[in-house]
Amino acid sequence: MPSKKLDFKTGQYVVYPTQGVGKLVRTEEQVIGDQKIKMLVIEFEKSRMTLRVPLERAEVSGLRPLVSSKKMDEAIASAKGKAGTKRMIWARRAAQYEENINSGDPMKLAEVVRDLQRRTATDTMPFSARRLYLRALERMAQEFAVLHKLDVEDASEKIEDILGIPKEIDLNAIEEDEDFSESDEE
Q: Which helix (H) or strand (E) holds 31?
């Protein structure tokens, strides 16, 4: 049995560890076998998914309310720290990062963001590391966005600005020569 009773309300934003932030839209009863089970119905806007979680299993599943702004600020502050030096092969580190992302814990998400962020504008990142970084950042940004009434993209940019992550250099960008104009062509 759960040690504490979680109290969820319709309209409340909640975090389901493997999916991120969703909105509790209603509770409903379903009959499964001979038992009536009270279900929490959660909609995830980004993935257009609806999830039903038995109320009795909510805590065990990791469903939780949003963290406070203070806790989110603590997580972002921890992401500013020095990257942890892991002396294990990438496959094991990637599996650990994946586990941290799916935990839904802001501090563990911050750890992934901290370890995988680019330190300079010219840093390159392998595809798998970039994918993990972006997933962790998005999960943090989802919660940050709801707490600060932003959209997720703005929240991601804000978090990266707070962390001081340099903007990527667009190697395909063509700089216009200011001295050259169409009249010079003639």
A: strand 20-32
pTM for this predicted structure: 0.80
pLDDT tens digits along 53-106: 999 888 899 999 999 999 999 999 999 888 876 778 989 999 999 999 999 999
pLDDT band for 39, please (50, 70, 90 cuts).
very high
Residues 107 and 142 in one domain: yes
The DSSP annotation for 105-165 comes to -HHHHHHHHHHHS-SSTT----HHHHHHHHHHHHHHHHHHHHHHT--HHHHHHHHHHHHTP
Provide long-range contacts, Cβ within 8 A and 24+ apart, for 35-40. Answer: 40/8, 40/14
User: Percent of the chain at pLDDT above 90?
Assistant: 59
Q: How far apart are CA 141 and CA 165, in angstroms?
A: 15
By CB atoms closer than 10 A (0-12, 13-18, 19+), residue 1 is exposed
Are 87 and 136 members of one domain? yes
Amino acid, res. 71: K
Instruction: Using the predicted structure, report yes or no on whether residue 169 has a pLDDT greater than 80.
Output: no
Phi, psi angle pair for 175, to nearest 5°: -80, 135
CATH number assigned to the domain comprising residue 128: 1.20.58.1290
User: Rounded CA gap, 117 and 78, in Å?
Assistant: 13
Six token digits for residue 107: 């501090």
